[in-house]
Amino acid sequence: MKITRIDAFQVRWTPDEKPTQHSAFVRIHTDDGIDGIGEASPMQGGLASLGIIHHDLAPALIGKDPLDHAVLLDTLLHTCVKLGPEGALTGALAALDIAMWDIKGKLTGLPIYKLLGGAWRTKLPFYASIGGNGDRSLDDVLRVVEARMKDQPAAIKIRFDNPRTLLDRDIPGDIAKARAVRKLVGNGFPLAFDANNGFTTGGAIRVGRALEELGFWWFEEPVQHYHVKAMGEVARALDITVSAGEQTYTLAALADLIDAGVRMVQPDIVKMGGITGLVRCAALAHAHGVELVSHQTQPMIGHMANMHVVAAQLQASKPIEWNDPSTRTHAVFENPPKPVDGLFHLPDGPGLGLRVNEAELEKRKV
Ligand code: CA
After folding, report:
1. How many angstroms separate the alpha carbon of residue 275 from the centre of ligand 1?
2. How high is the mean pLDDT of the chain?
3. What's the gap in Å between 353 CA and the centre of ligand 1?
4. How close is the Cα of 33 to the center of ligand 1, in Å?
5. Domain that holds residue 61
6. For residue 6, how far is its CA from the centre of ligand 1 (angstroms)?
7. Where residue 55 sits, what CATH number does that domain have?
8. Distance from residue 198's CA to the centre of ligand 1 (Å)
């Protein structure tokens, strides 16, 4: 089997929107007619990753066997390491890896989770991940959280998304919002607080103590992601589980985070490694007794790829992330994943299990 063509393109979320918010997809075609689909992180429309695929990675992959994906992509990571490895390059490689796993599944007629060794579970609970709460009024935070409860999430994460250049902007206000959300959902309901790198070390410890009192489940990315030692210091100072890793792009960098003291890591399948990479991360985390709760905010391909890995993970200790209940790329697929009674059901079709609506994809392709 040989790769004959690789298409790297953006997909519009709605037919007439601006190009700043598009998904970044890749499609790999082979000489026996099977194709696979993948996705890169859509930061800035994913243009940097798509450009790297088009100019640097695709030319090296034409004529190669997609079943050699780990050898091919690890070679390209090392060949093109000076283009990255942070972000743009690893996102590009992740998209290609997911597409090659999709091909492998279609060739064998098996869902990816079977190829990973089987599923511990095929119905996955999720947590509602709610962004933008730093700028909302307390009443608006409560209104948005209440609206998302109707999806029957197993937990809720409130993300603050404050500007990263303004640390500790409003600690009393942030704590007040956390307290109000706790009151709204009741004492038994699992909650998480995502600082989105918004605090200093001291500020984070202060917020973390409040979250411990409020019975929060975890405290995510309290300090800047590049301050790995500080992340570990906060994690070691607090009783609440501190998590990080969605902005970690190599297995070695994830090991540094664990060494620093972080006990829950959150690598993202469309930002680093794809399916192959996330499986390696799960092994690393498991070997250290650290929780792996993957970050995942893309509603279609990323979400589906992530579910296959989580289904095959021995210890999936927390629900999967579900960022966005919008139907922004649903039209591009005939069977978009939707939760039923609070659970995502993993499809048993070959590969990712997603069926492309070709006419709609053609319309939304950029
Ligand atoms: Ca986060």
Report:
1. 20
2. 96
3. 27
4. 39
5. 3-109
6. 31
7. 3.30.390.10
8. 11
Residues around the ion ligand 1 (C-beta < 5 A): 194
Span from the CA of 196 to the centroid of ligand 1 (angstroms): 6
Q: Do 154 and 33 reside in the same domain of the chain?
A: no
Please report the pLDDT score of residue 298 as a whole number. Answer: 87
Q: What is the distance in A from the centroid of ligand 1 to the CA of 158?
A: 9
Domain count of the fold of the chain:
2
Task: Convert the chain into a string of H (helix), E (strand) and C (coil).
Answer: CCEEEEEEEEEECCCCCCCCCEEEEEEEEECCCCEEEEEECCHHHHHHHHHHHHHHHHHHHCCCCHHHHHHHHHHHHHHCHHHCCCCHHHHHHHHHHHHHHHHHHHHHCCEHHHHCCCCCCCEEEEEEEECCCCCCCHHHHHHHHHHHHHHCCCEEEEECCCCCCCCCCCHHHHHHHHHHHHHHHCCCCCEEEECCCCCCHHHHHHHHHHHHHCCCCEEECCCCCCCHHHHHHHHHHCCCEEEECCCCCCHHHHHHHHHHCCCEECCECCCCCHHHHHHHHHHHHHHCCCEECCECCCCCHHHHHHHHHHHCCCCCCCCEEECCCCCCCHHHECCCCCCECCEEECCCCCECCCCECHHHHHHHEC
Q: What is the pLDDT of residues 44-54, one digit of tens each?
A: 889 999 999 99
pTM above 0.85, yes or no: yes
- Domain assignment present for 361: no
Query: Does 308 lie in the same domain as 175?
Result: yes
Ligand 1 centroid from CA 31, angstroms: 40
